[in-house]
Specification:
single chain; 160 residues
Length: 160
């Protein structure tokens, strides 16, 4: 009876040792998997940070370009406004002169028509430049919104 008890204890001890070895193996596998996952997360963070830096740099370049275009457009708008004002004054002067002088009437009418044509052209260009300016402002605002959204997404990814 003592021998059966010893065999039984030996079997139980062997079963426990085998189970302990299996659990130790599983723990080692899980530790290795956890380490691989942590390494992968580190690599992802590095890629995300690099992407964010590139995005920020591109955004700043676009903003600088947009600002330069806006300055150039403002200058052109100012010049066009001045030309429009001059053309309007010239039209008024020509209209007054037209009323005063019958002899010069045909020459003045011709010049008046040329100035009106120039005025129409300048007004059309002025409208186009206003539209371009608005488009640049809208694009600038859209770029800023996208940049903020990307920063928010990157911050969310970093926190996970």
């Amino acid at each position: 009876q003592g021998k059966g008890y010893e065999e039984s204890l030996a079997n139980i001890e062997a079963t426990y040792k085998k189970a302990l070895q299996e659990y130790t193996l599983k723990i080692d596998e899980m530790t290795a998997s956890k380490k691989a996952t942590e390494d992968h997360i580190e690599k992802l963070h590095a890629v995300l940070n690099k992407g964010l830096s590139q995005l920020k740099e591109e955004h700043e370049q676009r903003m600088d370009t947009s600002k330069q275009e806006m300055r150039a457009l403002r200058t052109e708008l100012q010049e066009t406004t001045e030309l429009l004002d001059e053309a309007k004054l010239r039209i008024k002067a020509l209209e007054t002169e037209l009323l005063c002088s019958d002899e010069k009437q045909k020459a003045i009418e011709t010049e008046l028509n040329e100035v009106r044509i120039l005025n129409d052209f300048l007004e059309e260009n002025y409208k186009k430049m206003q539209i371009s300016q608005q488009k640049l402002l809208d694009e600038n605002n859209l770029l800023q919104e996208r940049y903020k959204e990307t920063l928010d997404e990157m911050a969310t990814l970093r926190n996970h």
